[in-house]
Amino acid sequence: MDIYENKEICQKCGGYCCKKCGCDYFVSDFTSIKLATIEDALNTGRISIVSALDFKRINKKLTVSPILYLRERNVGREDIDLLSFKTKCASLTYNGCIHDYETRPSGGKTLIPKEDGNCYSEVSRIEELNKWLPYQNILSRVVKRRTGKTVLEKLKEDVTNLFYDILTRNFDGVMDAELIDVLGMVPLLEEVYEDALFEARKLKKEQNILKRTK
Ligand code: SF4
Ligand code: SF4
Predict the structure, then answer these.
(1) What is the domain count for the chain?
(2) Beta strand pairing status for 47-58 and 80-81?
(3) Share of the chain above pLDDT 70, in %
(4) Model confidence over 49-65: pLDDT tens digits?
(5) Ligand 1 — pocket residues by CB below 6 A?
(6) Which of 99, 102, 109 to mutate to test ligand 2, by most ligand atoms within 8 A of the CB atom?
């Protein structure tokens, strides 16, 4: 793999990409992927199972399928983080990334730093995500073991919490670019998860009543 690291440019930038979100792991970051591999990764406390949402309209009905994969954990997020506002990577310290180049997730290693901030990757994210498809069963089993919920149940819970964060304007640690990305996806989420939106509104109303009675 080509080495794109450029500490000088990244130091000057101050880690914009790391402040927006942790980087993706590629399947090639692991020698083999078994249930124990995923459990060990999550047990480091630095990695989460996350998902990319694939929206499709079939006979006018909008559906969503999550593609599960691993990502460096974000600040304030759990080991199973199927959908939430992305926050700063928990592995970003005052002195930069805790990883040396060798152990850094490939999503970060393949990013080409540019002085003007237009950093980019020549690797196709979709292709890398698709390489996780053969491991969806293993990842789903870990989601169930750790949350007691199926992937779809956990995703619905996360969507409800995301709606609640939006309704209560809980954007702590969320960068503007991330806010724009998520708000762009909200109309699709509202269409698929009407009941989650209803639930989040109900929750907000209950919280307001609680606050007033205190
Ligand atoms: S890769 Fe780009 S955005 Fe990330 S720290 Fe380096 S210069 Fe900044
Ligand atoms: S793992 Fe390192 S390079 Fe990747 S986002 Fe976190 S701090 Fe940045």
Answers:
(1) 1
(2) parallel
(3) 99
(4) 999 999 999 999 999 99
(5) 9-10, 13, 15-17, 111, 113, 119
(6) 99
